[in-house]
Amino acid sequence: MSCTVSAAPAPAAPAGDPGFGLYVHWPFCRAKCPYCDFNSHVRAEVDQDRWRRALLAELDHVAALAPAAGPLRSIFFGGGTPSLMPPATTAAVIDRAVARFGAEAGIEITLEANPTSVEAARFRAYRDAGVDRVSLGVQALNDADLTALGREHSAAEALAAVALAARTFPRFSFDLIYARPGQDAAAWEAELGRALDHAGDHLSLYQLTLEPGTRFHALAERGRLRLPPDDTQAELYRLSHDLLAAAGLAAYEVSNHARPGAESRHNLVYWRGGAFAGIGPGAHGRLDLASGRVGTSTERWPERWLDRVERDGHGLAPFEPLDAVTRLAELVMMGLRLAEGVPLARIEQLAGRPWRETLDARGLARAERRGHLTVEDGRLKATPQGRLLLDAVLVDLLP
Amino acid sequence: MTELARLRNFSIVAHIDHGKSTLADRIIERCGALEAREMRGQVLDSMDLERERGITIKAQTVRLKYTARDGGDYIFNLVDTPGHVDFSYEVSRSMRACEGSLLLVDATQGVEAQTLANAYQAIDADHEIVVVLNKIDLPAAEPEKIKEQIEDILGLDAADALLISAKTGDGVDAVMEQIVHRLPPPSGEVAAPLKALVVDSWYDPYLGVVTLVRVKQGRLEKGMRARFMGTGAVHPIDRVGVFSPKPVVIDELGPGEVGFITAGIKDIADAQVGDTVTDDKKPADAPLPGFRPSQPVVFCGMFPADGGDYPALRDALGKLRLNDASFAYEPENSQALGFGFRCGFLGLLHLEIIQARLDREFDLDLVLTAPSVVYRLYRRDGSMMELHNPADFPDPTQVDYLEEPWIKATIIVPDDFLGPVLQLCTEKRGIQEQLTYVGQRAMVVYRLPLNEVVYDFYDRLKSISRGYASFDYDMVGFDRSDLVKMDIMINGDRVDSLALMVHRSMAEARGRALCERLQELIPRQQYQVAIQAAIGGKVIARETVKAMRKDVLAKCYGGDVTRKRKLLEKQKAGKKRMRQFGKIEIPQEAFLAALKMETS
Predict the structure, then answer these.
(1) Coil, helix or strand for B26?
(2) Among A218-222, A386-390, B464-468, where is mean pLDDT lowest?
(3) What is the pLDDT of residue B140?
(4) Which residue in A295, A334, A395 is closest to B572 by CB distance?
(5) Which residues lie closer than 8 Å to A397 by C-beta, 6 or more apart?
(6) CA dist., res. B389 & res. B328, Å (int)
(7) What pLDDT, in 10s, does the model give residues B142-174?
(8) Binary contact (A372, B559; C-beta < 8 A)
(9) Are the folds of B298-368 and B484-593 the same?
(10) Where do the domains of chain B lie?
(11) CA nearest to B565 within chain A
């Protein structure tokens, strides 16, 4: 790979340019976690050559569809468990993507990884392939909870992987899951304190959510798993925000914390309403075509996706055209997750009308009165309290 | 005109399911009025609904020709009676059209509450009563024991009771003969001014209102101007006839005869059951006694589930009213439920029947509020208003006192369940008037406030007696009562459709139950919701729906955008079905569940 990767903070996004990203989905896992509803599958054997060729073919197809897209602000390998992907495949995809779309200076290339010793052993190879940022699924820092969460690593092993990532990559982040069964504020506070000892400039903290179709959901339905009460969940959320803000890692998004400049540039593309290409089984995209913006998605089932790409050159479903109202909904829905909010100019540019007229007037007035939304520096922002209730606020707000 | 001595007018008195309709069929068959292929079983119950529910809603009657064993020809008028508590007034009028009754009792079940109620009606009407025990073909039949019961409870001589099986026809011939020989013929002067009792009336789309009458004296003929003495309506008679059971037009009806008239009547309220028809040219000096215009006592709100169905509901109610003078309705507008109607009924079963007909005949999806009763509200200025809807309760400073309707309830229940039944009646503010035993069964008579009975009395009686209790009631009038209007407030705003009238002694318990139910039903909001029950300004119960603490998706990335957006669109659509109360939005479902509330 030819481009050099620097650890320098990204230049602040020029107003109105949320950037362009590429998402690559690697659908395989060694085991399925009981809380996870992502498109992930366990397979004994994966024909790595076929998969590499297929990913490259679909990448070529999408690039040809949207010739004006780019340059890339970021590439993100998600899954599944992308750290099971051969580094050579990672390198091939990165090289091809940069060749097709071009790259901004300081492009961010992130790979999600599990913090097991097996995967840590390949960190160097991913770095050599061009990956400059890893996001590690640590999830918890005590072994009992890790077992309950179906993870294949111990806390010690995870922290060792974190340390290795810190030495290998210019940037790294890790995830924790909170509001786990039986977890209280004191336990979470202690765990967060340990996490901060090992953290770099970025942490993702996800409240455990029972997604339909998962084993946790089924257990909860049968009364065999109980999440902490609502009030505790809210308390843990606030606690996380206060503690991390004090440590210099303020929440820049509902579940993401970073030092200024260390935000995930890839995810910012989503939250700022940028376009992105998505390849691999079940990947979603937002592409700006001559006809306007469309939503893209691909066949979810890995083998069917592979067959389709080999037959048709891609696994895409028919595009979903997104009209101005829909785009506006997406922009506001995603943008209010960010502390920076949504630039009013973007709303007006999209709707072609004064921004207030584009939203539900009563919902907006009520949210402002309740202190859930504010208008500041030409941006519509959710307050910390508003962000905690964002989904309810959005139902009121969207037209 | 038929010679009086050849006439026999009678009705069959029975509890539900004791075989009244089957016996009627056998009697019609014996008289050869219908070919066998025309017998569809239970000829008298003409409406589908009656067939389905096994009860008779509107009385019908049939005129039959019978040749007795002695060779004489007789005319039988079998006057059908509605078989349910809500129609006791209609039953009493049907009885006045007859001189005798067949008291039909299921020989396996014995005397039940409606056997009693209807038998007393027959006794009140001075009927000669022939006791008939049915279902003696069944192994469980105990005719001797049942005869004893009849003598003990009703004081009727059951020694000569006829033993029959209406199903097989066994013993029916003897019934026919007894009708001739035991029941008296009617009497009445043909030369006297006309007095004809309105036994029933219904709307026919081609003929207008058809009025079923029993001539007491004088003659009734086509062309006569009929005056309804109770309502004052006058209509020229264009048709006189009898049901055999098919309608047959004849020239005139004389004393003792039962038949129908049509007179181009458009509004059924002009021909009310119990009224007296006379000749407008030569009127009788006084009407027959006992006329009482029908008075709805049970009320509920009916709202279309889809507001767009309002005109369809209005038309449907209009059509039902054509056939049912005892059903009343007026427009109502509710904050929670939109536009609908406040409807009045003779009782709960009447309400159920109307609801079922709306559902079946008009295919309307309806929302019904909990039933309430009519109250008499006396103002300080001495005036009285009938309160059909708690929302109409005036400024309390104007109110002097209130009266509520009471009933006399007769319950027959196996001994094992007596305790819980007494407890239920006490809990419902009942006053015991009588407690007697009939073998293994107890008969209790209670005075009960109707508003407690409409609340959940039937369901609970049924469940605590495992369905073995039989129940009948009579309205006994209004009594002064310590009633209060209870308001439900949501974050300080009164919710009109949840207001209710309640006895002061029950207010706190009811208020608490309602608040608790609402607390379960109202989803958490962005702000705390206070639910209060209050009387006047005083809060008697309170519950809080805590504010939603956290409501935000933990993960929302590129792959989640579409799904999340579609979810929001769906929630937004759901929100449009919510009802706004001040700052609070509440799903309509929550109100419905609260309005239909039944204690458990």
Answers:
(1) helix
(2) B464-468
(3) 94
(4) A395
(5) A332, A359, A360, A363, A364, A367, A373
(6) 13
(7) 999 999 999 988 889 999 999 999 999 999 999
(8) no
(9) yes
(10) 4-182, 195-279, 298-368, 376-481, 484-593
(11) A330
CATH class of B484-593: alpha beta
Closest CA to A152 of A138, A134, A166, A168: A138
pLDDT, tens digit (0-9, with 9 covering 90-100), for B294-333:
778 888 888 887 788 899 999 999 888 887 878 889 898 8
A377 contacts chain B (CB < 8 A): no
Q: Tell me the chain A residues in contact with residue B546 when contact means C-beta distances shorter than 8 Å.
A: 231
Cβ atoms of B358 and B378 closer than 8 Å: no
Residue A52 — φ and ψ, nearest 5°? -65, -45
Please tell me the distance in Å from B586's CA to the nearest CA on chain A.
14
Residues in Cβ contact with B569 at an 8 Å cutoff, skipping those fewer than 6 apart = A329, A398
Q: Which tens digit of pLDDT belongs to each residue from B548-591?
A: 888 888 999 999 999 999 988 888 877 766 666 666 677 766 77
Structural domain B195-279, CATH architecture: Beta Barrel (2.40)
Higher pLDDT, A266 or A4: A266
Q: How near does any CA of chain A get to the CA of B332, in Å?
A: 28
Task: State residue B42's pLDDT score.
Answer: 43
Q: Determine contact: A287 vs chain B, CB below 8 A.
A: no
Nearest to B295 by CA among B193, B388, B200: B388
Least confidently predicted of B113-127, B354-368, B402-416: B354-368
CATH 3.30.70.240 fits domain B376-481: yes
Scanning A155-214 for CB atoms below 8 A from B yields: 206-209
**Nearest chain B alpha carbon to A281:** B559
Domains and CATH numbers, chain A: 20-269 (3.20.20.70), 339-399 (1.10.10)
CATH number, span B298-368: 3.30.70.870
Q: For residue A205, give the chain B residue with the closest CA.
A: B554
Nearest CA in chain A to B559: A284
Phi, psi dihedral angles at A111 (to 5 degrees): -130, 130
CA–CA separation, B357 vs B351, rounded Å? 10
Give the residue from A375, A285, A386, A280 showing the smallest Cα distance to A330: A285
Chain A residues in contact with B564 by the CB 8 A cut-off are 333
Which among B549, B553, B583 has CB closest to A391? B553
Superfamily of domain B4-182: P-loop containing nucleotide triphosphate hydrolases (3.40.50.300)
